[in-house]
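I'll show an entry:

:::
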Amino acid sequence: MPKLTVGGKTVEVPQDQRLVLAIEESGVHIGHRCGGYAKCTTCRVEFESGEPGTMTQAEYEKLTERGLFGQYRLSCQIVCDQDMSVRPIMTLESEGWTDTGSAPDPTITPDATVYSIDDLKQ
Protein backbone atom coordinates (compact mmCIF):
# COMPACT_ATOMS: atom_id res chain seq x y z
CA MET A 1 0.00 0.00 0.00
CA PRO A 2 1.30 3.47 -0.85
CA LYS A 3 2.09 5.90 1.94
CA LEU A 4 0.76 9.45 1.87
CA THR A 5 2.31 12.21 3.94
CA VAL A 6 0.15 15.30 4.41
CA GLY A 7 0.02 17.81 7.23
CA GLY A 8 2.93 16.13 9.00
CA LYS A 9 1.09 12.82 9.20
CA THR A 10 1.88 9.67 7.19
CA VAL A 11 -0.87 7.15 6.46
CA GLU A 12 -1.19 4.07 4.27
CA VAL A 13 -3.76 4.49 1.51
CA PRO A 14 -5.41 1.98 -0.81
CA GLN A 15 -3.59 1.42 -4.11
CA ASP A 16 -5.04 3.66 -6.85
CA GLN A 17 -7.28 5.68 -4.51
CA ARG A 18 -7.89 9.23 -5.73
CA LEU A 19 -5.45 11.53 -3.99
CA VAL A 20 -8.16 14.03 -3.03
CA LEU A 21 -10.03 11.27 -1.17
CA ALA A 22 -6.87 9.97 0.49
CA ILE A 23 -6.05 13.47 1.72
CA GLU A 24 -9.54 13.80 3.20
CA GLU A 25 -9.31 10.39 4.85
CA SER A 26 -6.02 11.48 6.45
CA GLY A 27 -7.97 14.19 8.28
CA VAL A 28 -7.16 17.21 6.10
CA HIS A 29 -10.22 19.10 4.83
CA ILE A 30 -8.96 19.80 1.30
CA GLY A 31 -11.20 21.72 -1.09
CA HIS A 32 -13.03 20.04 -3.95
CA ARG A 33 -15.66 22.65 -4.72
CA CYS A 34 -16.45 21.22 -8.19
CA GLY A 35 -16.84 17.66 -6.88
CA GLY A 36 -13.58 16.41 -8.38
CA TYR A 37 -14.13 17.23 -12.05
CA ALA A 38 -10.98 19.36 -12.63
CA LYS A 39 -13.01 22.54 -12.99
CA CYS A 40 -12.19 24.66 -9.94
CA THR A 41 -8.56 24.01 -8.77
CA THR A 42 -9.51 24.10 -5.06
CA CYS A 43 -7.97 20.63 -4.64
CA ARG A 44 -4.55 21.83 -5.76
CA VAL A 45 -1.47 20.55 -3.99
CA GLU A 46 2.27 21.06 -4.04
CA PHE A 47 4.30 17.86 -4.16
CA GLU A 48 7.12 17.59 -1.68
CA SER A 49 8.02 14.14 -3.05
CA GLY A 50 6.55 11.38 -5.16
CA GLU A 51 5.01 13.55 -7.88
CA PRO A 52 3.56 11.34 -10.63
CA GLY A 53 5.17 11.64 -14.04
CA THR A 54 1.79 11.68 -15.78
CA MET A 55 -1.13 14.11 -15.94
CA THR A 56 -4.69 13.86 -17.21
CA GLN A 57 -5.79 16.03 -20.09
CA ALA A 58 -8.40 17.69 -17.85
CA GLU A 59 -5.75 18.58 -15.25
CA TYR A 60 -3.37 19.93 -17.89
CA GLU A 61 -6.07 22.07 -19.50
CA LYS A 62 -7.28 23.57 -16.20
CA LEU A 63 -3.79 24.26 -14.82
CA THR A 64 -2.71 25.84 -18.12
CA GLU A 65 -5.88 27.96 -18.31
CA ARG A 66 -5.28 29.28 -14.77
CA GLY A 67 -1.52 29.82 -15.22
CA LEU A 68 -0.76 27.15 -12.60
CA PHE A 69 0.94 24.50 -14.77
CA GLY A 70 4.32 23.60 -13.31
CA GLN A 71 3.43 25.05 -9.88
CA TYR A 72 0.60 22.86 -8.59
CA ARG A 73 -1.22 19.61 -9.30
CA LEU A 74 -4.92 18.79 -8.95
CA SER A 75 -5.40 16.04 -6.38
CA CYS A 76 -8.74 15.07 -7.95
CA GLN A 77 -6.88 13.95 -11.08
CA ILE A 78 -4.20 11.83 -9.39
CA VAL A 79 -4.30 8.30 -8.02
CA CYS A 80 -2.12 7.06 -5.17
CA ASP A 81 0.02 4.43 -6.86
CA GLN A 82 3.29 5.26 -5.05
CA ASP A 83 4.47 6.97 -1.87
CA MET A 84 3.70 10.71 -1.95
CA SER A 85 4.15 13.76 0.24
CA VAL A 86 1.91 16.75 -0.52
CA ARG A 87 0.93 20.14 0.83
CA PRO A 88 -2.70 21.08 0.22
CA ILE A 89 -3.10 24.72 -0.80
CA MET A 90 -6.80 25.33 -0.08
CA THR A 91 -8.54 23.81 2.92
CA LEU A 92 -11.79 24.38 4.78
CA GLU A 93 -9.87 26.10 7.53
CA SER A 94 -7.60 28.28 5.37
CA GLU A 95 -10.45 29.50 3.15
CA GLY A 96 -13.22 29.85 5.75
CA TRP A 97 -15.66 27.69 3.80
CA THR A 98 -18.65 26.03 5.46
CA ASP A 99 -17.89 22.81 3.54
CA THR A 100 -15.26 21.49 1.14
CA GLY A 101 -17.63 20.81 -1.77
CA SER A 102 -19.49 17.88 -3.28
CA ALA A 103 -17.99 14.47 -2.60
CA PRO A 104 -15.76 13.29 -5.48
CA ASP A 105 -16.49 9.92 -7.10
CA PRO A 106 -14.07 7.08 -6.27
CA THR A 107 -12.68 7.14 -9.83
CA ILE A 108 -11.17 10.01 -11.77
CA THR A 109 -13.66 12.09 -13.69
CA PRO A 110 -13.87 13.11 -16.45
CA ASP A 111 -12.49 10.02 -18.17
CA ALA A 112 -8.75 10.22 -17.80
CA THR A 113 -6.63 10.63 -20.90
CA VAL A 114 -3.14 10.49 -19.42
CA TYR A 115 -0.02 12.17 -20.79
CA SER A 116 3.62 12.21 -19.74
CA ILE A 117 4.45 15.50 -18.02
CA ASP A 118 7.72 15.64 -19.92
CA ASP A 119 5.76 15.57 -23.20
CA LEU A 120 3.41 18.33 -21.97
CA LYS A 121 6.31 20.63 -21.06
CA GLN A 122 7.65 20.56 -24.61
